[in-house]
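URGENT: need a sanity check before tomorrow's submission.

F., can you look over the Luciferase record below? I want to be sure the sequence and structure line up before it goes out.
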Amino acid sequence: MKFGIVFFPTVGPADKPAQQYFDEALRLVDLAEELGFEHVKIVEHYFFAYGGYSPDPVTFLAAAAGRTRRVRLGTSATIPAFQHPVKLAGKLAMLDNISGGRVDAAFGRAFLPDEFEAFGIPLDESKDRFVEGVDAIKRLWAEDDVVVDGRFHRFGPVTLLPRPVQEPHPPVFVTTARSAESCAEAGRAGHNLQTVPNVMSTEELQSRLRTYRAEWAASGRAPGTEQIHFSYPCVVDADGEQARTKGRYDDDRNSAAIREAVAAWGTTRSDAYPGYEKLVEATKHSHFDSKLAQRKLLIGAPEQVRGQLEQIAEWFGDDITISLGVHSGHLSFEDAATTMRLMAEQVIPKLGEGR
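Structure tokens as predicted:
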């Protein structure tokens, strides 16, 4: 397994000023570089405490690039539907150059009705906009005199400057939370995969991974060359009970944030998002203890988290990469730093010792 950290703020001005949150997050980036973590990622969301402090991942990652030399920098994920492909391709290419070729470019469809309404984009167009946007971005990174004559964008011939450092382009990930078909399509297209185990059962996720890996291999790509990233909230403390107390508080606040963000699904329906109207009810029944028991959270003393990770490896394979959600903003900087140090020093080096 490889390990990195992912920032998904779920705080607003009443909880913590944005300036303070970003100062703490960038200090944790420094620590990730020092401790040898593989990557740093950040999300894209708007308006709500649920991710709203991060409307532009590239801005944060550019700051992270300037204070690191090794750690990879990932969007988790940025939304093609909300930006022109020339703009997004150019921003990510600049970041790849500034960082010396360390960008992992993850793209997502988005799923919050309020965000689509603000951008004036119908929910029903999200999948088609995603496919068209990602295809255009990849071509802009790798080809000269690109002409796009799509449903949503028409331009060209244009040749993007600067080109990414990585050839033919940065690794492309598809971020999917619930859709089995999105996993299959990612495999067929040769895209790497990011997902959140918290939103589905172990059996559902195993099925999606089998489908993804089968489609990857069927498309002529070598099995095992795909990258699969999972994100887990993570709180580690030398005292397991203290870790659970902090983790419960953090999970409760995170659950309240997503409950507010998905409220519009109570009155919204879209064929592009079948079943999403159930999110409102599902967020009312999000229980810390059951999520911990189902290995949807990484919380406890070092030896407990080590056992949780070994179970995850048995379920999904030990070739996956884990993104640790260490700082949603509700716990202190010191709590996040402790989690990272204990993971790097007492958890990761000892994985598999008991087998």
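My own read: The chain has a mean pLDDT of 94. Residues 2-350 form a domain with the TIM Barrel fold (CATH 3.20.20.30). If you see anything odd, call me.
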